[in-house]
Write a structure and sequence with these properties.
The protein is built from six helices and no strands. The protein is mostly helical.
């Protein structure tokens, strides 16, 4: 489910990128979202599936630390790399959206950056991880709100053409 966090970035960027700074930032955000999704899936596969399978197939008298520790360490490294890629994708998304939507994207971006920073080491574990997930929800909602509204110039053009 964690890779689905990127939908909050991909929806406002759902257009064909132009050959300008916003277009380059859009492609960069897409790449960062992809890296996040791949690496965070790797975290779940290694630290969750592989560690669970290894422990399940270990003798009851065996010490579990030497079996789990390298898998958890690898999973944590993958998760952190993914979280940093998500932070990069948030920055690139803000750069892509700012020319069209202006300062309205700033509140959501700031909250997403803070949540992304906490996500590097909190995952979903109580209490910080839960607050991090709520921060993502708020940040994505504010970003969607900031990109849904038209700019004052666009409203003026519509009123001239319809009025």
């Amino acid at each position: 489910m964690f890779p689905l966090l990127t939908i909050g970035l991909l929806v406002p960027l759902w257009h064909r990128p132009r050959p300008d700074l916003a277009g380059i930032a859009t492609v960069t955000a897409w790449a960062g979202a992809f890296v996040y999704a791949a690496y965070y899936t790797g975290l779940d596969a290694v630290a969750g599936i592989a560690a669970g399978t290894a422990v399940e197939h270990t003798a009851e008298t065996a010490a579990l630390g030497p079996i789990k520790r390298p898998l958890y360490h690898t999973g944590e490294a993958l998760g952190q790399a993914g979280a940093y890629a998500l932070i990069g994708a948030v920055v690139a998304t803000a750069i892509a959206l700012f020319p069209k939507h202006g300062a309205r994207v700033v509140p959501g971006t700031v909250i997403l950056l803070v949540a992304g920073w906490f996500f590097v080491d909190s995952h979903i574990f109580w209490p910080r991880g839960v607050w991090t997930m709520l921060g993502f929800a708020l940040g994505f909602a504010l970003l969607a709100w900031g990109t849904a509204r038209s700019t004052p110039a666009a409203r003026d053009r519509r009123s001239v053409t319809t009025g």
